[in-house]
Amino acid sequence: MGRSDHYELVFERSGAPVSVPGGEVDVVVVRRTDRKGPGGHPLYADDTGIVLAEISDLDEVRMIASGGQQDPTTSVTARPVQHLL
Q1: 84, 6 in Cβ contact below 8 A?
Q2: Which of the two ends of the chain, N or C, has the fewest CB atoms closer than 10 A to its terminal CB?
Q3: 61-64 and 76-80 as β-strands: parallel, antiparallel, unpaired?
Q4: What is the pLDDT of residues 22-68, one digit of tens each?
Q5: Where are the beta strands (DSSP E) in the chain?
Q6: Could you give the CA distance from residue 26 to residue 75 in angstroms, rounded to a whole number?
Q7: Contacts of range 31-34, beta carbons closer than 8 Å, 24 or more positions apart
Q8: Cβ atoms 55, 63 nearer than 8 A
């Protein structure tokens, strides 16, 4: 655990558990911004700025809505990324 500059956010779809191989999941890479979320933890964003997440030092994720029609209650987990290609 701890803080990373980059995370993979793994979004669960169609009720498929993230741990099931071949399960329906979406993965988005986010990087740390210079902003803080409502809980005081670093705010992370994808390259488009649409996907926003506050990630605690325990790798707990709070999705932040960046616009209308978003559902920040989707099940999501964060995995630290060590190296980007």
Answers
A1: yes
A2: C
A3: unpaired
A4: 566 788 999 999 999 999 999 999 999 999 999 999 989 999 988 77
A5: 6-12, 25-36, 42-45, 52-55, 61-64, 76-80
A6: 11
A7: 31/5, 31/6, 32/3, 32/4, 32/5, 32/6
A8: no
